Amino acid sequence: MAVASIAGGASVASAQTAEQFVPLLVYRTGQFAPLGIPWADGKQDYLKLVNARDGGVNGVKLTYEECETAYDAAKGVECYERLKGKGSGASGFDTQSTGITFAVTDKAFVDRVVVETPGYGLSQSVDGTVFEWNFPLLGTYWTAADVMIQDITKKEKGSLKGKKIALVYHDSPYGKEPIPLLQKRAAADGFELSLFPITPPGVEQKSTWLQIRQQKPDYVLFWSAGVMTP
């Protein structure tokens, strides 16, 4: 009985000291800081809440460390390399950037590290037979683009044949992500797709909107971020 009690006590002590490291890639600086700051604050506050209210997850405390990427792919890779092996190993990376997701996907496959992309990232990663360590949650940018086309199709009573649709997009991996889906839909549904890239950060758009006025598309999809958004 004494031995069992000691063993049980050791088990409890082990559970009490168990920790899981959560890397937090953030962009509190750079062109997207107005988006990144509240997101970073919210994630960190939630981890603090889980620890304070619930004692962690199933008795496992969550530890974390922020790493500033400024929404830059090279800095994101540096953060990934620095944090992937910290503590008992990173639980997974929510990169907060499509460009960083592209940059670390092959690395994550080799390292066997999870890359989580809730609502963003590499749309092709929905094929888990190819992208085994990518977990796209809550849809992808292809999902979002398809929903837009479905909505326009309803407005046009089921047919987009002969219609003109323009995509004004942030000229970055994030902004380019819906293009393959839209090109497929254009071929299938018979509408004309025009592409208008906006050079980051996206403040200067005058020439693009002059072209839009000249071409007079029936619909404009505005795929913006940060200061590009009016």
Question: Could you give a short description of this structure?
Answer:
The protein is built from 8 helices and 8 strands; from the N terminus they run αβαβαβαββαβααβαβ.
Spell out the blueprint of helices and strands.
Layout: H1 2-17, E1 19-26, H2 33-54, E2 61-68, H3 73-83, E3 93-94, H4 98-111, E4 115-118, E5 134-137, H5 141-155, E6 164-170, H6 173-176, H7 179-189, E7 192-198, H8 206-215, E8 219-223
Parallel strand pairs: 1-2, 3-4, 4-5, 6-7, 6-8
Protein traits:
8 helices; alpha/beta; Rossmann fold; 2 domains; 45% helix; 230 residues
In words, what does this structure look like?
This protein is of the alpha/beta class. The protein folds into 2 domains: 136 residues, Rossmann fold (3-Layer(aba) Sandwich), CATH 3.40.50; 88 residues, Response regulator (Rossmann fold, 3-Layer(aba) Sandwich). Helix content is 45%, strand content 20%. It contains 8 helices and 8 strands; from the N terminus they run αβαβαβαββαβααβαβ. A 3-stranded parallel sheet has the order 3-4-5, with helices on one face. Strand 1, helix 2 and strand 2 form a beta-alpha-beta unit. The chain is elongated, with a radius of gyration of 22 Å. The N terminus is likely disordered.
User: Average pLDDT across residues?
Assistant: 92
Number of domains: 2
In CATH, the architecture of the largest domain is 3-Layer(aba) Sandwich
Tell me the overall shape.
elongated
Distance between the termini: 71 Å
Q: Low-confidence stretches at least 5 residues in length (pLDDT < 50)? A: 1-15
Element pattern in H and E: HEHEHEHEEHEHHEHE
Radius of gyration: 22 Å
Helices and strands: which structural class? alpha/beta
The biggest beta sheet reads: 3 strands, parallel
CATH domain class name of the largest domain? Alpha Beta
